[in-house]
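User: We ran a pulldown and think these components assemble together. Before we commit to crystallization trials, I'd like a predicted model of the whole complex to look at. Sequences follow.
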Amino acid sequence: MKIAVVGKGGSGKTTTSAVLARTMARRGRATLALDCDSNPNLGISLGLGEEVTERLVALRDAVDTGEEDHASSPDELVRRFGVDAPDGLRLAVVTAIQNPQPGCP
Amino acid sequence: MRVAFVGKGGVGKSSLAGTFARVLARTGERVLALDSDPMPGLAFSLGVERVDHGLPDEAIQEYEEEGRRRYRLRDGLTGTGAVEQYAVRGPDGVHFLQLGKARGPRWNNTRQHFGFQRVLDDLPGAGWSIVGDLPGGTRQPFMTWGRYAETFLVVIEPTSASVLTGRRLAGLAATDEAPRVAAVANKVRAPDDVEQIARRTGLQVVGAVPFDPHLATADRLGVALLDHDPEGSTAVAVASMVDTLRSGLEPS
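Assistant: Here's a predicted model for the assembly, 357 residues in total across the polymer chains.
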């Protein structure tokens, strides 16, 4: 199952995504939560705290500044730009990058 | 004064910007309210009837530069002229101009997008105050949609995500041409909310607006807060913020 949560700012996208993801993980599904927001806060709603959330965002931003290499595959993207979250799910920050390279996932 | 409201989605940028613009206009200033959010909400908080009123196609001219398609205001049309011709008059005499609503992925708004930016580069100067409502989030607002502003007001509610967003915006501002950035605490519930917001973002708090159930009711009804609850806590707090900013910016 692949679900995308969309809507107006402040309507509850991030909270809905987090509760959906953790509920699915609790029911035993292997769950990947992707934060595609240019202002990524899903880590907060999943319960990871500010420090972990900011670390992921900084890592993601480092791709734009050239300090961090682009991921070469979707698996690598989720591994390098992700973190384990409560209930056994995985969170990755995958905000659109500014200067994608050919073949960039 | 020229101010622009920024901050996380849903913190109340449009509600406060619209109220701010009208309260400022009531002090006798000529106010232009700008909505550059492709999901616009400023018309509601201003109480302007037309919620989707971008620059018409005829205002914008296509031209070619080094083989690339570009857009500018049509020959003879200045930014000030565009404001005079296309801005809608709202309550309290506020002039209102907006980017216009995004109409899904197939609707190409490149024309409006660039046309609106040309207006931002040539806004009316003397005798005008400008109040901008910017899109939510942390996409560089200082050099783009808010580039006309002298002061950026980061609206922050007492939640982790909103404070983090405020901190990210403060960081972005610090690395640019150091625009004046201040915080507005919104939906304040606890006695130490304002202090926490100041401490955790490093920003000066120039306004504190209490949590206001009347605002939710006004939003549900689709009416401006100032018309729904003209003397309520939000109106009072915004009026105080207008005073603060006016005294801080005068004489200009």
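The CA atoms of residues 69 and 79 of chain A lie 13 Å apart. That may be worth checking against your pulldown data before setting up trials.

User: Thanks, that helps.
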